[in-house]
Amino acid sequence: MDSTRPPSDSSVEPSIDTLIPTFRFMIHRKMRRKAHGQYRRHSTRRYIFSAIVIALFLSLIGIGAQRLELASSWPELLLIIILLILMIYVVVKVSIVVRWCFYWLVLATLVLFVINKGSFFETVRNGPEAKADPDGKNALRAKIVLIVLASLEVFTLGTVVFLRVVYPRIVLRAQWLNVKKWWRIRDVPSPSSRSVNYRTIMFSYVSWDEDEYRLQRSSVSYVGEFDEEGRPHGLGEWTDHTFTGEALQGIWDHGEPIGPFKSQEYGTGNAFNNIRIGFCKNSIDKDDSTAFKAARDPKGLSYGAAAVECSVSGKFFHHLPFVRIIGKGIYRSELDHIAKEDLEAPSIALSYPLSFLSTFAESLQTRPSIRGSFRNGKSKKSIPLSKSIVVRYTDRGILIPGYIRSRRRGDVNEVVIRRICPPNMGTEGQNVVIEGSDAGRDRSTSQTPVPTLLVPTNQAEGSNGGGSASDDSDYGPADAILDGPSNSPEDRRRSGEYGRRKRLNQEGLMVEGWRQVMDIDGKTPSALAASRAGYEALVFIHGYNCPLTYGIGRLGQLLSLGEFPPYIKPFVFNWPSSTTLGYFTANAVGCSDVVAKDLRQFIEDLREAGFRRVHILAHSMGARIVLSALRKGYFDGVVAEREVVAVEEPSLESAHGGSKTALHARASVRYRDTMSGRSFKTTRSSTQQAAISDSFSNSDDPTTPIQLATFTLLNPDADLEIFLEEDYWTLSKYCPHITLYADAHDGALFWSELLTRQKSLGRHPRTLVYGPTGEVLDVDVIDTTSLDVNIHSIRHNFFNLNRMLVDDLYDVVVLGRRARERAGRLSSRWTFSDSGLEDGEVYTFLCAPSYVVNK
């Protein structure tokens, strides 16, 4: 059923009753954020103060220092000390989560201090307890305090458990709960001007305002598409005007938001993004856990997709990233079997996960704008304008990823990009009234229409402003694409058609003669769509002890903070990574031939799906997995090799005589990185590197090898000597852009070196130079040792949270910029070999430590 059409006779009319399940789900989302809580800064002083208070409390009730003298033996004394330490630890942890538990404890400590008359050890100084308290009143008072304290603690914990665990489940699932009476829901009249493509439902309810600490009535509205049962389904926008309510716009699935969507709390400003990520899995592990006995799935590869919600602004929440599998994993063998039985089914295995990988921008393009149609009118698709456009060089001309040419004629080596901005704003902000006649426009002009969001008006139906709009009526005046105002007759004719209508024009960039293609949604052949639009794949290969959902969450956080463009489709390759104690098991299974074959098959499926460029992000042991497959030759034939121009044998004079390294001399290879006939050495300049070969981007032939555009090593757990001797030279045959992020204080790689007795690639950023010949490796080495923001004490997994790294990875993957071209963020320094000669550049981030502040 087309959700944009009026409901049929068998459909339920959308109303407050049909919206009740969605309302309960959104209330549950609000409660879940409250229950899991937000990340807070760790305070050492708070821990110390809590421990001191608890120690004083234990001393006052006679379980502390007074009772230690009753220990008759060392084992008994040691047991008492251990129990005290455990008790203090548990109470501190509970008190930090539930603040009132700590407040009751402090109050009880003060009361006991008064009862004991300001002395902690009075019974010890005065002898037996009978002499210190002959009437036993102090002991009775202490018991009463303890009983009251225990009652308050139990009541507080019970209340917290009910409000954070039991009550949210009642709200979400209890059928006996009368929602209308409990929240006192009332109907609110909808606006008089409704969209023809979407329905609007509004109501109000009573809620607790955390900002003003009182009950108040707040309004809720939903405008969007509905299913046959009257529930939100498709594109829609939910707005809850309570302090922690959400303004959520995105894709809904039978009453629940599944993403992609963008959301923001109404009062706090905390923002969230939900994006979709595909995955390729070959392990027998569950999606959210790993098994010690790592093993490959005997059924082979399975493909699927997930939606991951991440915090992007304001406070960050403990339960985010939250991963939800929306495209259940299907084995590749089953997909091939379905394709053979059904001739109309796509024969490409990746068509299944690709059908789920729509972005928020693509979702807006496939439907009319939510607020973009007049009464009794028709609305065209609203294509969000890009804020940044990447232009690539190819042997066939210019390629703009995410765009295809809409005109057959034109110079393939020339492109015109124009800035789009709203007209001059009036006093009402972006709503501008354009006066003029309603004369028809000359449709013989070849002017490219400008995407425009239209705001409904309250004009009468008989007027031109409220009547039926033509197919082109959703586009703003043509003079919006010009650099300045124009008074030509043609411009006045075009603007006259839109008399007395308010418009909200988009801002961004427009490419003349090109149009955006965002149609990898199962409706068109994915290979054709991907190849024609220049779509690129981003493959994340995680480290060991990493479940599928954890890897998807880490990549989702990176993409959410980085705002990667829609033409880059993300995937996670999930391999059998074992558990924390299964390091050697994960290493053995991950570097096996079966995993290498599966990785090759995944790359082949990407190629057959139409992708011509792939970016690989390998973290920790994931780098060892990819480098092992490369070394064994599993990428031959599926990944394009760079053309060799010349090979120069190393001379003995160039070797460093005093070098301690035992590496053998290698030849210096010249590669051709463009199709223009110019050859560059591996140590080429930044200007030369900008012209990366992209000869495969416009080819629709599925047998054409895929190009490894970038290869990024994130704190790689790989052998340093093997990388210098062999892996680099194999990798440089395929990839012109290699980046390494290393940290000299990486705790995880420290233990890896201790276990394997080999230097780790990600822990020695200053040694990536080929020793005997003195030739600097063509690797951008980024030293992250000085970073200290959003970094765990282990310093091994922070690439998706640290803002400097997120922006740097965006420049690497999206813009293809080398380290020397990122001078605004990176500072270079030279490293020196044992002989004292300069042998390479290492880059560090231009940022001050977090503890440096203005005085």
From TrEMBL:
Biased composition (Polar residues): 445-459
Disordered: region residues: 437-501, 676-701
Keywords, sorted A to Z: Membrane, Transmembrane, Transmembrane helix
Source taxon at top rank: Eukaryota
One family name in Pfam for this protein: DUF900
Residues passing through the membrane, by range: 47-65, 77-96, 102-124, 144-167
InterPro entries assigned: AB_hydrolase_fold (IPR029058), DUF900_hydrolase (IPR010297)
Comp. bias intervals (Basic and acidic residues): 489-499
Protein's name in the database: Alpha/Beta hydrolase protein
